[in-house]
Amino acid sequence: MRALFVFPDRPRAVPALPRVARVSAMLRPTLGEAPMRCVIARFPFDLVKSEVESKMAGIRPEEVTGACVVIGRKVFPVKQVGEVITRQDRRDFTAAEVTRALVRLGFTCHATPPQAQSPAPAQSESQPQPQSPLASGSTPDPFGGIGG
């Protein structure tokens, strides 16, 4: 085994950063947003909102049945976004972990899919609209004529 000699006039060798830190430092943008450290499936990730948006830009959203996130104008399932940004299998993390990270980055998340805004149905003038009892001025009997 080699002995390590320290010379006072020479600087000490600085230990290299772990591979994860080096990769995240290379991916870090030079201007703009600071990365957010998020832990998903026990692994730390340095995420930036603009990077998440750019990764999801060319991806078609799957059908949303549960938790979802709005990225740009599209609504993605949280698990799909987590799979893309972490490159892990969907079974390795929970939707809550990804939702927590995305909310911290500033995305809008929903527990259930938002209702699509449908246009109001066109009212036909030939069909009369039924009037409610309140509109006619009479009040309905709450007991249905029972009792007195």
TrEMBL record:
Chain spans, region Disordered: 110-148
Positions with biased composition (Low complexity): 113-138
InterPro entries assigned to the protein according to its UniProt record, in alphabetical order: SCO5918-like (IPR047719)
Tree of life domain: Bacteria
Alphabetical list of NCBIfam families matching this protein: SCO5918_fam (NF038312)
Protein's name according to its UniProt entry: Uncharacterized protein
Species: Streptomyces plumbiresistens
